Structure formats: structure tokens, C-alpha cells
Amino acid sequence: MADVVEHEQFNKMNARNVAMVFAPNMTQMADPLTALIHAVQVMNFLKTLILMNLKERENADAKARWIEKQTSDPSEE
């Protein structure tokens, strides 16, 4: 899901939109009203997970760039 959101500028699928698509499929119940209530909760949860995953990726990329700069910069020695 985070991979899709990373290409939002091309596919217009932000974290909310992706979560909205997946949530109903994760909350199938006999009572439609109960399913809808749970789908909204699952949607919010998925959105949070997607955003957390994207933030973790950003942090990992920033750390990798920092480490690469520290190990490749001869002026630091």
C-alpha cells in the first residue's frame, strides 16, 4: 500500500484513498451498518499504518544518505 502512495503524483492515490479502497474488503459482516462502522475504523487504522511506513522509509533513506556521506567524505579525516 505504501508503494502505491509513493507514486501519488502519478496515480492520485494518497494514504486515505488507498485505505478507503482496502478497508471494506477487510470488514465483511452480515449486518451492513456494522460493517460500515468497522470499515471506517479499519480505514483510519490502515491510513495510520501507511503513513507510519512512509515515515520509516524516509528516516531510513535519510540515515543511509548520512552514513554514505560520512564514509565517503575524505575531508572528515
Automatic annotation (TrEMBL):
GO MF annotations, alphabetized: GTPase activator activity
Membrane-spanning intervals of the chain: none
InterPro entries given in the database record: Rho_GTPase_activation_prot, RhoGAP_dom, RopGAP1-5
UniProt keyword annotations, A-Z: GTPase activation
Listed Gene3D superfamilies: Rho GTPase activation protein
PROSITE patterns, A to Z: RHOGAP (PS50238)
Matching PANTHER family: MKIAA1688 PROTEIN, RHO GTPASE-ACTIVATING PROTEIN 3
Full protein name: Rho-GAP domain-containing protein
